[in-house]
Amino acid sequence: MVKISQQPKNIGASLITELKKVTWPTREETMRLTIIVIMISLIIGFYIGIIDFLLAKVLEYLTHVR
Questions:
Q1: Per-residue confidence (pLDDT) for residue 39, from 0 to 100
Q2: Which residues make Cβ contacts (< 8 Å) with residue 11, sequence separation at least 6?
Q3: Please, what is the end-to-end C-alpha distance for the chain in angstroms?
Q4: At residue 26, what are phi and psi to the nearest 5 degrees?
Q5: Cβ atoms 28, 19 nearer than 8 A
Q6: pLDDT for res 8
């Protein structure tokens, strides 16, 4: 762990050292995971949209009932 009292030069060197240890995803993994995130976001957005529409209709019905 980097100590706060280290010089900025040492922090930069340790940052580079740590970044060399990172296992970066391949282009294919990145594309696949991005598509999964977009699809899940669309599904959740569609679900929330349906719930919002139904609740708005219920509220409209309740406020117009006399």
A1: 98
A2: 2
A3: 68
A4: -75, 170
A5: no
A6: 60
CA atoms of 13 and 7, how far apart (whole Å) = 10
Side chain identity at 8, as an amino acid letter? P
How far is Cα of residue 38 from the mean position of the Cα atoms in its chain? Answer: 10
Q: What phi and psi, each to the nearest 5 degrees, are found at residue 33?
A: -70, -35
Structure tokens at 63: 């406020």
E-strand stretches of 8-60: none
- The b-or-e profile of 7-39 (16+ CB within 10 A means b, else e) is eeeeeeeeeeeeeeeeeeeeeeeeeeeeeeeee
pLDDT, tens digit, 9 for 90 and up, residues 2-61: 555 556 667 888 888 899 999 999 999 999 999 999 999 999 999 999 999 999 999 999
